[in-house]
């Protein structure tokens, strides 16, 4: 009886995460269904402030799992997590737990009073060496190609944004667009006198900022990060972007936002007392809106670059004759003839 109780307890503990996940699944589905519902009505067009949408680009209450992805690498990484890693981990856990339970029951003292003295089994030893190797190779192939895709350098038409970490806010520079800079501070619910107060149109509490980083939709972004003081980390979960911002060094990562909207992230390196209060907000807009925003900030769109064409070869200089010979025209006798 005691053994049965212990077994039931062990099975219950082992299955608890799976049950919790199953219970959360309908909530997750409900959240996805509520995706289209805006958090707040968009403000007047003159403000040009895009309102965030619940469930997009921000964490959702009572949901486990990764945020929905809006970049090609993000979708690929999410697939890697959901379709490759999680099933393999669950299968291994279930197999090991099952074997353990089977051994406990099948080979207990009362059922198996004379234990086997077997110490080697070549077939089993080959299997338990080869199978893990094959599993690891199976994981390594998509994993390494994903890693390579994540660190593929941006193309020459990419929009460069330099994110600079400061204690405790971000500044965004646009070197290709006239080099203007945007200073981005968190909006507070109870701001100091004269400062702007956060509203739901700006974003969730602790994630809304006064000036967002703005990028065009569907265009490759060359993200450069550095820092003015200590190590920060630029993290934007919906784009699968996380890049350290290190003083005296510039890191680079390319990504592409596939859908217009507002996306929120945070500094992900413990950088001091107000580390939790330097959020990141990226506003993804159409190419026209991006152009208008750049103009409003006093910047300019980069000039159209002419495509690279190979130079025509330079004409060869006339052959140089030794100084003791007269010029060819003055020496017709030296020209070979047919007769
Ligand atoms: Cu920081």
TrEMBL record:
Occurrences of domain Cytochrome oxidase subunit II copper A binding (ranges): 156-296
Record field: compositional bias (Pro residues): 312-330
Keywords: Copper, Electron transport, Membrane, Metal-binding, Oxidoreductase, Respiratory chain, Signal, Translocase, Transmembrane, Transmembrane helix, Transport
Cofactor: how bound: Binds a copper A center.
Obligatory cofactor(s): Cu cation
MF GO annotations: copper ion binding; cytochrome-c oxidase activity; oxidoreductase activity
Domain of life of the source: Bacteria
GO biological-process terms attached to the record: ATP synthesis coupled electron transport
Region (Disordered): 298-339
TM regions (residue ranges): 84-105, 126-149
GO CC aspect terms: plasma membrane
Matches recorded under InterPro entries: CcO_II, CcO_II-like_C, CcO_II_C, Copper_CuA, Cupredoxin, Cyt_c_oxidase_su2, Cyt_c_oxidase_su2_TM_dom, Cyt_c_oxidase_su2_TM_sf
EC number(s) reported in the record: 7.1.1.9
Domain Cytochrome oxidase subunit II transmembrane region profile: residue ranges: 58-154
Membrane topology, from the record: Multi-pass membrane protein
Pfam families the record matches: COX2, COX2_TM
Top-rank EC class of the record's enzyme: translocase
Record function comment: Subunits I and II form the functional core of the enzyme complex. Electrons originating in cytochrome c are transferred via heme a and Cu(A) to the binuclear center formed by heme a3 and Cu(B).
Name listed for the protein in its UniProt record: Cytochrome c oxidase subunit 2
């Amino acid at each position: 009886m005691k053994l049965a109780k212990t077994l039931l307890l062990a099975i219950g503990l082992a299955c608890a995460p799976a049950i919790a996940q199953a219970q959360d699944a309908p909530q997750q589905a409900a959240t996805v269904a509520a995706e289209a519902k805006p958090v707040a009505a968009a403000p007047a067009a003159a403000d040009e402030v895009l309102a965030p949408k619940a469930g997009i680009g921000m964490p959702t209450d009572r949901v486990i799992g990764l945020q929905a992805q809006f970049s090609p690498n993000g979708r690929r990484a999410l697939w890697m997590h959901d379709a490759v890693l999680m099933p393999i981990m669950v299968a291994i856990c279930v197999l090991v737990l099952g074997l353990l339970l089977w051994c406990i029951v099948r080979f207990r003292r009362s059922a198996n009073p004379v234990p086997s003295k077997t110490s080697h089994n070549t077939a089993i030893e080959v299997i338990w060496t080869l199978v893990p190797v094959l599993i690891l190779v199976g994981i390594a192939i998509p994993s390494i190609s994903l890693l390579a895709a994540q660190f593929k350098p941006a193309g020459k038409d990419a929009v460069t944004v330099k994110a600079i970490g400061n204690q405790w806010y971000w500044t965004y520079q646009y070197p290709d667009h006239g080099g203007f800079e945007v200073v981005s501070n968190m909006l507070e619910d109870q701001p100091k006198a004269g400062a702007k107060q956060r509203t739901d149109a700006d974003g969730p509490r602790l994630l809304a900022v006064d000036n967002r980083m703005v990028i065009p939709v569907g265009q490759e972004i060359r993200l450069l990060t550095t820092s003015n003081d200590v190590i920060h980390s630029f993290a934007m979960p919906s784009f699968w972007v996380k890049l350290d911002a290190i003083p005296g060094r510039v890191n680079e990562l390319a990504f592409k936002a596939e859908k217009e909207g507002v996306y929120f992230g945070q500094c992900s390196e413990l950088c001091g007392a107000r580390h939790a209060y330097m959020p990141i907000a990226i506003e993804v807009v159409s190419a026209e809106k991006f152009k208008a925003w750049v103009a409003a900030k006093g910047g300019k769109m980069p000039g159209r670059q002419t495509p690279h064409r190979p130079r025509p070869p330079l004409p060869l200089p006339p052959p140089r004759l030794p100084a003791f010979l007269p010029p060819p025209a003055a020496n017709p006798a030296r020209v070979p003839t047919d007769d």
